Amino acid sequence: MKIGASTLAGIEYDLENALEFIESLGIEYAELVHQYPSESIDVEILESFNLKYSIHSPFMDVNIAALQNKSRLNSINQIKDSIDLANKIDADVVVIHPGLAPFLANKYFSDIVYETANKSIKELGEYGRDLGVLSTIENMPTFEAMIYYDLPDLHELLTGYDMHMTLDIGHANHARYPANEMYFDSIKHIHIHDNFGDEDAHLALGEGSIDLKHIVNTLEKNNYDGIYIIEVNDYDSIKKSYEYMKENF
């Protein structure tokens, strides 16, 4: 079982600090949050750690479903930078958010938002494929403006493009999917964290109500060979979650 942790937990510190903590626990993988304040990542620093990497492309200020074409193209170029970085450091996976539908776009042009997102997703999938990088699309929670929180819809889209999904287990629970409806064969990467379904809380594993054992056991029975990235809020939650994974799987 491949277990990693996201540097999201230490986003308020410098990247080196987060990597030092992750490595100190004996965790093998780190997922680099490739956006402010780590927009520029020093490859030499990465190479100084005994870690393997995946990359979470920018999501704070980007929208690949933007109807304003200049905004969309800028977002795509930022994500391509993450794919380029993954190629340079031989990272396993790049995680990509599918985009947003702000109020007016959602009210009047929702079909076009999805068409635009699909166009961008396909382009990024092809860009990654050309570089030998696995570009995966993450399912979203059911917050206003979020798109592709519907797991079957996302699976169908990605299968048609010969692409793959990052299953965010906490997001799927927020979207009210039960544990026995979270497996799809397009899944190649996992974000694992806990919640009670009412908010995207990113709690330590075992601190919410998600049937994590059922989900992980289902993935393992289906020969899932990707990474389980612990994506929680702070260092203590990484430590608790890593202990949970070692004790239960």
List keywords for this structure.
8-stranded parallel β-barrel; globular; alpha/beta; 249 residues
Describe this structure in words.
The protein has 249 residues and is of the alpha/beta class. The protein is 42% helix and 16% strand. It is built from nine helices and eight strands. It has helices at 15-24, 43-47, 69-89, 103-108, 110-131, 151-160, 169-174, 212-221, 235-248; strands at 2-6, 29-33, 52-56, 93-96, 134-138, 164-168, 187-192, 227-230. The protein has an eight-stranded parallel β-barrel, surrounded by five helices. Helix 6 (151-160) links the parallel strand 5 and strand 6 (164-168). Helix 3 packs parallel to helix 5. The radius of gyration is 17 Å and the shape is globular. The model has no long low-confidence stretch (mean pLDDT 96).
Which structural category fits the helices and strands?
alpha/beta
Distance between the first and last residues' Cα:
8 Å
Q: Tell how many strands the DSSP assignment holds.
A: 8
Shape: globular
Elements, N to C (H/E): EHEHEHEHHEHEHEHEH
Strand content: 15-25%
The low-confidence runs, each spanning 5 or more residues with pLDDT under 50, are none
